[in-house]
TrEMBL record:
Domain Bet v I/Major latex protein: 2-151
Entry superkingdom: Eukaryota
Pfam families found in the cross-reference section: Bet_v_1
PANTHER family: BET V I_MAJOR LATEX PROTEIN DOMAIN-CONTAINING PROTEIN, OS08G0374000 PROTEIN-RELATED
Calcium found in the keyword field: no
Gene Ontology MF terms in the entry: abscisic acid binding; protein phosphatase inhibitor activity; signaling receptor activity
Family of this protein: Belongs to the BetVI family.
Key word Transmembrane present: no
InterPro entries for this protein: Bet_v_I/MLP (IPR000916), Plant_def-hormone_signal (IPR050279), START-like_dom_sf (IPR023393)
Record organism: Populus alba (White poplar)
BP GO terms, sorted: abscisic acid-activated signaling pathway; alkaloid metabolic process; defense response
SUPFAM superfamilies xref list: Bet v1-like (SSF55961)
Official protein name in the record: Bet v I/Major latex protein domain-containing protein
């Protein structure tokens, strides 16, 4: 079975500034700083933030709970970042594919829509897995990153 869930979050910050926070490894640094207690600790395993980079997210309050993901798409022109889970997390639960796509869409000069999409696949006999999929952590991340970028007047030229 293949499916996807998507959520759009409006933030009051320019798209270039939001993208500079989302692209490459900056998102992991901000997640550690702003949401580490909720989402977990992000660690770079391999790479410099471009396509092929592998990061590990260790979940807070768990003994050994983690996931590793690889950056599959990093498009500065379209402001799209896509990662795929390769170990732990949803893969350990039985998913065959679990991808996260983050799109930064300019609404106007001072506001941006962050579209967070989860694309997933699993064996048709495991339909109960669909109930585990949520975009809520990505929505929370979008809200917090958007608020941070807006308050800090993030330097959009510092890609």
């Amino acid at each position: 079975m293949k499916d996807e869930l998507s959520e759009e979050t409006l933030v009051q910050a320019p798209a270039n500034a939001v993208w500079s926070a989302y692209r490459g490894l900056e998102l992991g640094r901000l997640v550690d700083k702003l949401l580490g207690h909720v989402v977990g600790k992000v660690e770079v395993i391999e790479g410099d933030g471009g396509v092929g980079t592998i990061v590990k997210l260790t979940f807070p309050g768990t003994s050994g709970g983690y996931m590793k993901e690889i950056f599959r798409i990093m498009d500065d022109e379209k402001r799209v970042k896509e990662t795929e889970m390769i170990e732990g997390g949803y893969i350990d639960l039985g998913f065959d594919v679990y991808r996260i796509r983050l799109e930064i869409i300019e609404k106007d000069a001072e506001s941006t829509i962050i579209r967070s999409t989860v694309k997933y696949e699993f064996d048709d006999t495991k339909t109960e897995l669909a109930s585990l999929v949520t975009v809520k952590p990505l929505q929370t991340m979008a809200e917090e990153i958007g608020k941070h970028v807006s308050e800090k007047k993030y330097d959009a030229n510092n890609l």
